Amino acid sequence: MDDDTAGQQPTIGTGFAAFQLAKALMASVSSPDAAARERAAGRVASWEEILGHLFAGSASYGSRTPIDDVPAWATLEVMTGGFATGRMLAGGPLQPYEHQLLDRIVPAGQGKDRLALNLYFLTDAGLGELQAWLRSGHYDVRVPEEGALLTVAWLAANGHADAARDIVAAIAPFFPTLRFYPVPDYRPRHFGPRVHVQEVGAVARQLADIRPNRHVIAQKRAAEVWAPLHDRALSLFAETMGDEFWPCQQRPVDWSARVATLLAEYAAQYSANQIPAKYRKPGSHHAQLHAFLQRCATSFETLTGRDVGRIRHILRCSVAKRGMPAAPSSQAYRRRQMDDVRAPLYADIATVVGRRLASYPAADGLDDIESVQQSVAPDEGSDAVPAGTAIPRHIARKLERCMNETPELLVRRGLISSGEVLATVLPQLTSGLRSLGIDDPALRGLYAAIYRAFRRRRSLLLLDLQSQVRLEELPWVAAIEGLRNENLSSRAAARQALEATTLLALEFFPHAILPNRLVRELGALATSAGVDVPLVEELATDIFMGEFSPKFLDAARVAGTLLRGSLYATYYGIDYDAVDRLGADSSSSATFTWPWQKARMRGPDFAALCAARAGVALGSLRPATNGMIIEQQQILTTQNLAPLVVRLDLRAALQGRLQQMARSCFKWICARNQRQLDDWHGRLLRVKNSAYAWRQMIFFLSLLPSEEVLAFLAWADEFQARQSPAWQRRFQPAMHGLRGAVEGSASQGNGPFLGWSDSRHWLME
């Protein structure tokens, strides 16, 4: 979009949705896996719905309520990019457990089955059943709506009838279409300080998807079927040898009959169409022997002297390699081949392990992982998987993903491999901590279950600084929140979890900014802990509208309390006094300038400051320009690093880790940028992420004493000297800028290492 679009509002076009539809269509017809094709077909249907909404103007994409007559609290199906299809996840066809519930009540008929179920749970019998589930915990909440009538039941039984009626009034219009009752479960859910990366059910499905490796199958068939056939063919020709190792000189009495039997077995194996490449290759020794047997089954006269010479050559090659087929050396060779392929197939072992997992709740993790990883028991053994077979590491590693453990241990074992994965497991911990302020155990468990389900909701595409729907906006959760008793012990537990999770993310993934999902979870913990931390999300450049909400300025001011006069401020040329003056007088405007820029720009607010620092104008709506502005916001706010360190007082806890964290960032940048990458968009993302990692590194160095910063520079020079000459030359501007900042002057040359540019980036050679 050209700069003359300044002042226009961004609109949601059809291009992104059409591209996603095209990708799904390609996958639905070209994927070699049937299950993948089926999933792609589902995506095709979803993107067709979205495009239908876009063409018809029947959805308000960019709004908190994109679908007409669907309230904000309803859980929508949301695709990549935040586009809602219009389907509600608590709706759709009746689930198997719903049919079972219907069998116990009078069927409503006429397409009103879900209405009948919702109304049943408002009867005395239904409320009693819900209250029994609350006491036992034998239920699951997969989408937040499924906790609504459980909340009604608890409120009705505990003297809060008015609040219960308010919830029913809010959700009753959707009784015919949505599930407001839980999923029955025969085991209570796990809530505690331990988490798992995947649920048992997800791991079981992955094990079921393991298919036999075609190369291993071919190797087994070669050793078990085709090698014996080949040896028998060799033996038959060996029986015909005369003097001087010449075959086809004599014909034993029953030779033709045995050849006919062997040829029939060949025909059966060929018809099975499971022929390893080695044995179906034209011109191979095996193919030639088979052809010669067919020709001389009844008479050697069909063979020429050249044919007999070829048979002799094949026999000599076999004898030279392993001896005659009946020789001990040849038999030992074949036994070794059989031993190599005798091990059970992973797919068969996975079936055994899958049967073990079937006895555990599919929606939870495993406390005792060792019992599932033990060798195959006698009552589980079979010809395919004998008793005593050890579970291979490949399958054991999958099982570990559903192991209940502390986040720190899962990170150290590599099961949580990024901040994104950490964000997906954190709701299991946060849900329990958020519920600590609720006195009643049954209500506490219900709140935790709803919380986990809510955190599985995907974010919507939003414009105009709108915020995503908050948990407390759900009518049934709002009623629970009013009963919360925030005590010191629950706040202390939440703060401890917040500090531990922050340190975990920074130490193990120091090169990456905190992903938005993790930021939201940290925000929830901060709320529970009663700590005011202005956390900010990473913004999308294509829908940025030239404004930042007030929390961004708050975060920048907090950063100033930590970084004023630091290496970070020097390197990025930050005047934190100018930041502090923003908003003090809305009628005034401040002047901002980079040390290496001649132009001086003016602006009254935080967005103007960021644009001035980027050297661009607000409102162009160009993604590259927006990216430059947003990156300046990230520099000023440190994208959550400083607010967390300051408000949680983590500087002392980080001191022993900062040097290694900075080195990890530098190593990541060097390694990532020396990989071959032909995709242009991928290279742009690499530059952006490298600049972000560089910024995090500068932040960590800014918290170190000057002598440790010098030690880091010495290490970095030595490490860089071991890299490729091309990389050393390309990255020299960044190294010069860092050295200049350490010496006390602003970044030299073309400015600091930034990830966004409106022209070709200097790192993109």
State the helix count.
35
Order of strands side by side in the largest beta sheet?
1-2
Terminal residue distance: 25 Å
What's the mean pLDDT score? Answer: 87
Biggest sheet details: 2 strands, antiparallel
Q: Domain count, please report it.
A: 4
Q: Radius of gyration over alpha carbons?
A: 34 Å
Low-confidence stretches: 1-7, 585-604
Beta strands, count: 6
Shape: globular
Residue fraction in strands: under 5%
Q: In percent, how helical is the residue content?
A: 55-70%
Class derived from helix and strand content: mainly alpha
Report on this model:
The protein has 765 residues and is mainly alpha-helical. It folds into four domains: 59-187 and 440-480, no CATH class; 207-212 and 345-404, no CATH class; 214-341, no CATH class; 543-765, no CATH class. 55% of the residues lie in helices and 3% in strands. The strands form three sheets. The chain has a two-stranded antiparallel sheet with strand order 1-2. β5 and β6 (601-603) form a beta hairpin. The model is unreliable at 1-7 and 585-604 (pLDDT under 50).
Quick recap:
With 765 residues, the protein is an all-alpha fold.
SSE topology:
Elements: H1 15-30, H2 34-56, E1 76-79, E2 83-88, H3 96-103, H4 113-120, H5 124-136, E3 139-140, H6 148-157, H7 161-171, E4 183-184, H8 200-208, H9 214-238, H10 255-272, H11 277-280, H12 285-295, H13 305-322, H14 328-341, H15 346-357, H16 370-373, H17 393-400, H18 407-412, H19 419-434, H20 441-455, H21 475-481, H22 488-508, H23 516-529, H24 550-563, H25 567-572, H26 576-581, E5 590-592, E6 601-603, H27 606-614, H28 623-637, H29 641-647, H30 651-654, H31 658-673, H32 680-702, H33 706-721, H34 725-730, H35 732-742
Antiparallel strand pairs: 1-2, 3-4, 5-6
Helix pairs in contact: 1-2, 5-6, 6-7, 6-21, 8-15, 9-10, 9-14, 19-20, 19-22, 19-23, 22-23, 24-29, 27-28, 31-32, 31-33
